[in-house]
Amino acid sequence: MDSSLVGSLVREQDKSKHWESKPILQHGGVSIDLSLAIGDNAITPPGAPGQPDQYPKKSKYQFDVSRFKGVESEPEMNQLIKETFPGCKWISQKRGVKVQGGHIFQWRCEYYPVRSNGVTKPAKSNFEAGHFTKKNVKHETNKQRAAQSAYQRMSNPKMKSSSRKRKRLKAADRRGRRAVYEKQEGEVSLNKRTHSKRADDPTRRCHANVKTLVSDYCNGWFLMPDCDFHHCFHQPEEPDASLLNESDLSEDNLEYMRLMFNAGVGDQTVANIMTQMLNKQGRPGEFLASTIQNIHTNCQAAMDEIAAISADATVAERTLERLNRYVKVLLFSIPRIFRYSRYFH
């Protein structure tokens, strides 16, 4: 491949990793461009309804007071941030930090935290060479009976090896010295290496953030001018590539999931059904089977707590407790069934 072509492809890829969020917010039936209310030359977006005469902390825009009132409106604001700023996920960095005149709430791009890879901070490495388990973790072994071992029960003699050969394999060299594992300078981390949505180092952070202020005087939510909508060092995500979680479900959706759990529907089937339901409702994304399993576990724990079943109870104890509950219901219902059955004869 031509070197000039490779260079142009690399430049295009690097260019695609720097992009701007264009948040358009619906406020009282008016489309509001929030990018006008940030920066050194911030202005109040034209046509924004319900704006005060004076703004706190050099802010230029106040969110809809009918929807956002006081710090208890944080979940609604969190959902608004997800819907208005597509292309990445947002994590809460400051939640109700007290400042003069109000409380600060701030969301940052998920590529802002730095991934700990063990190279810049080798002391935090959880693994060491020559071991499959983490540090300070007890090595568990299988219990063996007094009978013959699996090696002694082998029927194929070719699979066996002499004790002298086994001892030689345990040694590091022919002199009988054990292998000494030392981390060489510049060696990669021993931590699990997976794809991460965090910055590789502090110089490659994405500083995009959304900063708001909840005023103590009017309990209104204000957009701060020192927000940053410019993303760097990562490409925008497609809406369908995002993952859904429990916060994306309404009460009706959770109730429908409980009915499927009680009917014995599998986690993967429930995940497919809920994904299709939310996609039809205009919520792009996908549920994982592991997410559905966690929701199922939380729902079951809440039901057990209501039914006064201990969290430390075994499976057998839980089953007996539920059977006793069903028997009580049947014993209470059978006399009523016979009482009203005479009306049908």
Care to describe what's here?
The protein has helices spanning about 5-15, 75-85, 165-170, 250-260, 265-280, 290-305, 315-340; strands at about 20, 25, 30-35, 60, 90-100, 100-110, 210-215, 220-225, 230. By secondary structure, the chain is an alpha+beta fold. Among the domains are: about 20-115 and about 205-235, no CATH class; about 245-330, no CATH class. The strands form 3 sheets. It has a 5-stranded antiparallel beta sheet, covered by helices on one side. It has a two-stranded antiparallel sheet with strand order 1-9. The protein has a two-stranded antiparallel sheet with strand order 2-3. Strand 5 and strand 6 (about 100-110) form a beta hairpin. Helix 5 packs across helix 6.
From the structure above, extract its key features:
9 strands, alpha+beta, two-stranded antiparallel sheet, 345 residues
List the helices and strands and how they pair.
Blueprint: H1 3-16, E1 19-20, E2 24-27, E3 30-33, E4 61-62, H2 74-84, E5 90-99, E6 102-109, H3 163-170, E7 209-215, E8 221-223, E9 230-231, H4 251-262, H5 267-280, H6 289-306, H7 315-341
Antiparallel strand pairs: 1-9, 2-3, 4-8, 5-6, 6-7, 7-8
Quick structural gist:
30% of the residues lie in helices and 12% in strands.
Number of strands: 9
Strand share of the residues?
Answer: 5-15%
**Total DSSP helices:** 7
Across the major sheet, the strand order is 4-8-7-6-5
Radius of gyration: 30 Å
* Secondary structure category: alpha+beta
Oligomer: single chain
Mean pLDDT: 77
Distance between the termini: 89 Å
Binned, the helix content reads 25-40%
User: What is the molecular shape?
Assistant: extended
Order of helices and strands: HEEEEHEEHEEEHHHH
Main sheet: strands, sense, barrel:
5 strands, antiparallel
The low-pLDDT segments are 118-123, 175-195
